[in-house]
Amino acid sequence: MRLSSKAIAACALLSFSPLSSAAVYLGATGTMSEFSKYDDVKRGFGSQIFAGYRGETVPLMVEVAYLTTGDNDVDGLDVALSFKGQAASVGYFGKFDRKGSGFFAKVGYYTGDSKLKDTSGGGSVEETSSGATYAFGVDWMVARNFGFRADIGGLLNVKDLPGIDSGHKSNVTLFNLGVVFAFGGAEPAPRYQPAPVYTPAVQVPAPIPEAAPYVAPYAAPQTYAPVAAAPVVAPQAQFVAGSPAVVIAGGAVRGQPSTKSAIATTLSNGQAVRLDSQRIDNAEGSWWLVSGERLKGWVNEKDLQH
Questions:
Q1: Distance of CA 266 to CAs 111, 271, 276, 284, 295, Å?
Q2: CB of 104 within 8 A of CB of 91?
Q3: Closest to 104 in 3D by CA, of 94, 89, 119
Q4: Confidence of residue 20 (pLDDT cuts 50, 70, 90)
Q5: Domains of the chain (ranges plus CATH)?
Q6: 3-class DSSP state for residue 225?
Q7: DSSP 55
């Protein structure tokens, strides 16, 4: 266990260092072991402690572990086979989510002690055994720093009769299930970034150059001959005092030559009247004093015709 304990301690320290921005991890599993060469050797139950490092840009993993198979009892005999030791491996890790979950395949080298034990209390025999190791599995991370591991692997050519026949060997199949703690390697969830607020640039208008004062060109004074005013021709009256006239429909007869004066009567269309005097002109037009059968008053010239 000397090599394994030092390697695991180094990985644990590395996981809390600045280098842990990539995936440093450690964990532990329960292990079910099986000596595949024998039908009469029962399965054993042991454990495994591991630590490793996964590349951030390269899908490479490096891992060390300490493991024990537990006692694999032999049917009908008070004898059990077991192995404990350490392993180092390298492999491929394919990440498939943002938390750091992924599947892996690794190969490596193991070394440790194979033991043949008398379970009735008669002692045990140990012998160093080493060889190749392999595993296939998956790390499923339920959070950025915590997840579960499941894998199946094996130790090849483990001495199964230590102290009796060093050349007698068997492969040991290992089924592992446990937990893994990761430090780094997971992609942080994207944070909401508010959309930038557009601020229009303030444009300062260029100063307008001051115009030179305008100086009118000198012009010699001109002398104009006086123009005689055109004679004012007074409009000739359309009607003459004492002449007859005919009222247009709706002609109003008033007491005074003004529209503000009360209407004495309204004449019907074509009614004949006589103009009694000259007309009176004001802002409302020309007014004639008219008389007729039982009427006398002022009528505006626009209501009269010849």
A1: 139, 10, 18, 18, 10
A2: yes
A3: 94
A4: very low
A5: 2-183 (2.40.160.20), 244-305 (2.30.30.40)
A6: coil
A7: -
Q: What are phi and psi of 9, to 5 degrees?
A: -65, -40
Whole-number Å distance between alpha carbons of 89 and 110: 9
Q: Counting Cβ atoms within 10 Å, is residue 172 exposed (0-12), middle (13-18) or buried (19+)?
A: buried
The full length of the chain comes to: 306
What mean pLDDT comes out for the span 190-197?
Answer: 69
Residues of the chain by 3-state class (helix, strand, coil), percent to 5 = 5, 50, 45
The model's pLDDT over 113-144, given as tens digits with 9 standing for 90+, comes to 999 888 888 788 999 999 999 999 999 999 98
Q: Is the four-CA dihedral 297, 300, 301, 306 of positive or negative sign? A: negative
Q: Residue written as tokens 């094996």? A: 154
CB proximity list for 57: less than 8 A, separation 6 or greater? none
Residue 170 tokens, joined: 């068997």
Gap between the Cα atoms of 86 and 2, Å rounded: 9
Is the CB of residue 151 less than 8 Å from the CB of residue 136? yes
